[in-house]
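Researcher: Next entry: Nodulation protein E (Methyloligella solikamskensis).
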Amino acid sequence: MTKTNGRRRVVITGHGVVTPLGTGVEKFWSGLKAGKVGIREVESFDTQDLYITIAGEVPDFDPKVHLKSRPLMLADKYSQYAGCAAAEAVEMSKIETPIADKEAYRSACVIGSGVGGLTTLEFSYKMLFQENKRATHPLTLLKAIGSSASAHVSIEYGIKGPTYGLVSACSTASHSIGNVYRMIREGLVDFGIGGAAEASLNWGATRAWQAMRVLSPDGLFPFSKNRNGTVLAEGAGILMLEEYEHAKERGAPILAELMGYGSTADAADMVNPSIDGASAAMEMALTDSELSPSDIDYINAHGTATAVNDLNETRAIKRVFGNAANNVSISSTKSMHGHCLGAGGGIEAVAAIKAIEENYVPPTAGLTDPDPECDLDYTPLQGKEREVSYAMSNSFAFGGLNAVLVFGPPPA
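Model: Predicted structure:
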């Protein structure tokens, strides 16, 4: 079964998450529906000399409980998060592993990270420059590299096709998913794992983000008049993508269809986003999905709660959607799970898929006093039931790197 233009269709047969609302899709989605906020005082590192002391830490991740692989037990936490989320997605997809030789080269694994094993690096530099050690841990390099997560997952399941890590700051997961989508659609592979993981919560990273003056000491309040910055978080979001006929033939559960993908660069500024780049990415994703703006029922907004981003995203949605912007439900789930950086787009893609599955729009928590210029339906405070056939997920990163995904219901 193909689209009208003859391309292969791509479906989602599994997904997995590690988030500040809990590990696993069930905990995550239940938290979103309840409007639960996973942003809290930092516990994993000393916040002395920091004025930012809150973050979205994962509260319930125990490698001994959530991981079976010994190599992953020795890996950086970002790879462990990826391995855990991938395991949930693979198990849900019911695909047989290790993947048989005849299919191993027809599979892909693209798992990125904004910064890779940053906590491993901080620990190693502390050993060298503060404690005057003569050497670091022998696995430092393997733990820190940005392709470590994808390599671990590839080894775990016998994936022998295209496998690599991808880096595009806060759009990393969406670009990774988009890459696997394109490979399947164009016939290079038949199925693959796509997404990203991030575990960069440490003293040094927080100090660096503090210096940019983009972090809030109070919380993450997208589209609010009183928004005062974003909140760093960690986690992973992973999808199992599969060619529709391949999934159908093996009787796989089909959660949704990935219908469109758009990717652009602002080519303007490292920090301040442009309306043009975001608009073009949304338009490309709609064109790719063969949908019109009026078909979209829900948008999971990038919604970082910075002054410029939220306003520009609002304006970009209005430009692309026209009158239909007044009918679409929108929310920023970052208000609950924080800004998971490179992993954000994967986690938010899962939220979009669940919105379609349950016909439910999660809320934007803390939106008590909306910015008059952010005047769309941002689903304040409480989620709501409504028919959600098609959902869009926006990721707009530092450097002006934009990625947009459009999901629809399982093919009839």
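Model: Note for the record: The chain has a mean pLDDT of 96.
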